[in-house]
Amino acid sequence: NKIPNGQTLQKLADYFHVSVDYLLGREKNGETQTPEFSTLQRRARNLSRADQRRLLKIMDLTFTDIDNGELDEDDSEDF
Question: pTM, whole model, 2 decimals?
Answer without folding.
Answer: 0.50
